């Protein structure tokens, strides 16, 4: 399978344009984002095969920070090196970050409720369902791996925390190591780390640790408002596992008690973050623009946006070259067969909750989800068009 995949050589501009489109159209949260990524880089452009993509997703589930954004950085790194990783992040992040900064200024917003937003959630059901179906056919083709996937889904549903997700992947890896013999997985011939060598990786890991340990000391010594703000968001991005909504209580504890952001403004921004495409971590851009400490405005927004994503960038670049070497070993490939099946199970669990339970509330929602799935899976309609039509259809049904 690896021979059928495009060599990991492309231009940063190519990566930027692909992820800019994803940043403008990827509604539905981090699990749906992984479905959009798969369609864009596995199905349509064949930058990766299914197993290599699942390897990246599994790795990003282990790392602190936003898993979908980290997967995007890793794909950009694979395709066009360090510049590609940066361009993938820029393209996927800037549209929603710009919207959140504008919302902090209080202009150009149409509201965060309404039927059109619910329609985006319904379309996310179809996107995730397509990703689960496609990945299951490739990564769970036999009874053993299908059983691992179902077991991982059950564990994730019974323990709905980051510990449940990480535990499911660990158990899947152990089962694969013990019971699933190594075979032609298709991953060994697909280099994931691009042209990044281990010296650069080590430098990134060292910088990650130095900033995590040194920023609090430097901020306390200088008393700089900008450094205090940067430290809070860098520390949050370094220590949150599970990404997405898990970041809410951490940011609330950092910003609201000191009075940097008022409680009502905090909750208003969090509500707005649900209505924009791209990563939920762009909530940081809103908070930086609205904070009563630091530069404020668009400068504060960009400062906090860079701070919360910087740990993810350093970890992806620092870990991926070492992961590249490990995944080529026979025993590790056996474990990865189980890990990849567990990843499918995690997607299956997420398809039920929160994707299905928050979107399919009536027969009309189920019908819209079915039509969207048909358009994506059988008619190959571009996801961005399905997203647009789903929002319009939901608004029309609400007015009918």
From TrEMBL:
UniProt-annotated location(s): Cell membrane
NCBIfam families in the cross-refs: 2A51
Highest taxon in the source lineage: Bacteria
Transmembrane spans: 15-37, 80-103, 115-136, 148-180, 200-221, 233-251, 300-323, 335-355, 367-394
Membrane topology classification: Multi-pass membrane protein
Pfam families (alphabetical): Chromate_transp (PF02417)
Record keyword Ribosomal protein present: no
InterPro entries assigned: Chr_Tranpt_l_chain, Chromate_transpt
Keyword Membrane: yes
Full protein name: Chromate transporter
Entry keywords, A to Z: Cell membrane, Membrane, Transmembrane, Transmembrane helix
Record family assignment: Belongs to the chromate ion transporter (CHR) (TC 2.A.51) family.
């Amino acid at each position: 399978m690896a021979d059928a995949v495009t060599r990991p050589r492309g231009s940063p501009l190519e990566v930027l344009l692909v992820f800019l489109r994803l940043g403008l159209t990827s509604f539905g949260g981090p699990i749906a984002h992984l479905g959009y990524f798969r369609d864009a880089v596995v199905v349509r452009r064949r930058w990766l095969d299914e197993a290599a993509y699942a390897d990246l997703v599994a790795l990003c589930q282990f790392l602190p920070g936003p898993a979908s954004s980290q997967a995007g950085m890793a794909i950009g790194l694979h395709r066009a090196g360090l510049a590609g990783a940066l361009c993938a992040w820029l393209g996927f992040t800037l549209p929603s970050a710009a919207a959140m900064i504008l919302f902090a200024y209080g202009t150009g917003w149409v509201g965060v409720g309404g039927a059109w937003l619910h329609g985006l959630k319904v379309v996310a059901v179809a996107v995730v369902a397509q990703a689960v179906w496609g990945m299951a056919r490739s990564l769970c083709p036999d009874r053993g791996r299908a059983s691992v996937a179902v077991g991982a889904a059950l564990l994730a549903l019974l323990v709905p925390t980051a510990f449940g997700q990480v535990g499911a992947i660990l158990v899947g890896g152990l089962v694969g190591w013990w019971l699933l013999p190594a075979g032609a997985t298709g991953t060994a011939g697909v280099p994931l780390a691009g042209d990044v060598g281990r010296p650069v990786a080590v430098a990134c890991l060292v910088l990650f640790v130095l900033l995590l340990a040194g920023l609090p000391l430097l901020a306390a010594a200088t008393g700089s408002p900008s450094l205090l703000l940067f430290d809070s968001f860098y520390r949050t991005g370094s220590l949150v596992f599970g990404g997405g909504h898990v970041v809410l209580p951490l940011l609330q504890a950092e910003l609201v008690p000191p009075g940097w952001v008022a409680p009502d403004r905090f909750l208003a921004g969090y509500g707005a973050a649900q209505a924009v495409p791209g990563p939920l971590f762009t909530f940081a851009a809103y908070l930086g623009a609205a904070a009563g400490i630091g530069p404020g405005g668009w400068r504060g927004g960009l400062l906090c946006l860079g701070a919360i994503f910087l740990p993810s960038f350093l970890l992806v670049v620092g870990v991926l070259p070492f992961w590249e070497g490990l995944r080529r070993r026979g025993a590790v490939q056996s474990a990865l067969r189980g890990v990849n099946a567990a990843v499918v199970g995690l997607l299956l669990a997420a398809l039920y909750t929160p994707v299905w339970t928050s979107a399919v509330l009536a027969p009309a929602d189920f019908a819209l989800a079915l039509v969207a799935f048909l358009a994506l899976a059988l008619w190959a309609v571009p996801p961005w068009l399905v997203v647009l039509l789903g929002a319009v259809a939901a608004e029309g049904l609400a007015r009918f």
